[in-house]
Design brief:
Elements: H1 12-16, E1 20-25, E2 35-36, E3 44-47, H2 53-61, E4 68-74, H3 80-83, E5 92-97, H4 107-119, E6 121-130, H5 136-139, E7 151-159, E8 162-171, E9 174-183, H6 187-196, E10 199-206, E11 209-214
Parallel strand pairs: 1-4, 1-5, 5-6
Antiparallel strand pairs: 2-3, 3-4, 6-11, 7-8, 8-9, 10-11
Length: 217
């Protein structure tokens, strides 16, 4: 994927002093046109919240607005081998691991995403991790997509600690469906996964967000 050498015209070193890095899954309905210089596999610079509205809006509602965001986008079928060598060559004061990637049903892939986040986090930086609610394996229900806005969910199957379903995106009458399977982690399991990646939970921000940091060496 991208490297510092690929970014001289965009001043990546200057940007990382104040930008957040957002690691998320690429949207199946396509990406916003306000991302520079393009789509994955290289990271993309986003000014504002349009290209990752749901995630950044959620953090803004928690009192954590980010104006300059650099994104690293990943396909739904990303593999650990795609992630383990990824290093953008810079460290960020804030890294956001979105798209419920920590809830991958594959432990190796889950830790690969945490590894990417940890590698790009400054030594005293903050890591924001989005996850499914702790009780979601017992409470997940089908939801209706709102055209042009919300993501719906159908064919929900609860098999604790797993949830399988189909996400439904309705954008102006264009409907896109994406099957997924998630593993819901308990508080203790979240803490253990972070510890295995050299991280620790600093505080809980909401039922679906935690703030983490690097373990002291």
């Amino acid at each position: 994927m991208g490297s510092r050498a690929a970014w001289p015209a965009y001043g990546i070193d200057a940007m990382t002093e104040r930008a957040a890095l957002l690691i998320r899954r690429r949207r199946p309905i396509g990406e916003s046109h306000d991302i520079e210089p393009g789509s994955a596999p290289r990271p993309a610079l986003l000014r504002g919240s349009a290209g990752a509205g749901r995630i950044l809006q959620s953090l803004s509602e928690l009192g954590l607005p980010f104006r300059d965001v650099m994104q690293s986008l990943h396909d739904a079928d990303s593999r650990p081998t795609d992630l383990d060598g990824l290093d953008l060559g810079s460290r960020f004061p804030v890294v956001v691991l979105g798209s419920h990637l920590v809830n991958s049903p594959e432990a190796v892939l889950r830790r690969s995403f945490l590894g990417v986040a940890g590698r790009h986090l400054a030594s005293n930086g903050r890591l924001m991790i989005e996850h499914h609610p702790i009780d979601w394996a017992e409470t997940a229900e089908a939801t209706q997509a709102t055209p042009g806005a919300e993501v719906g969910m159908r064919d929900v199957r609860r098999d604790p600690p797993f949830v399988s379903a189909v996400s439904v995106y309705d954008i102006g009458g264009r409907v896109v469906r994406q099957p997924f399977r998630a593993r819901v982690l308990s508080e203790g399991e979240l803490a253990a996964e972070l510890a295995a990646s050299g991280l620790h939970v600093r505080r809980r921000l909401s039922p679906t967000w935690i703030e983490a940091a690097k373990l002291a060496r």
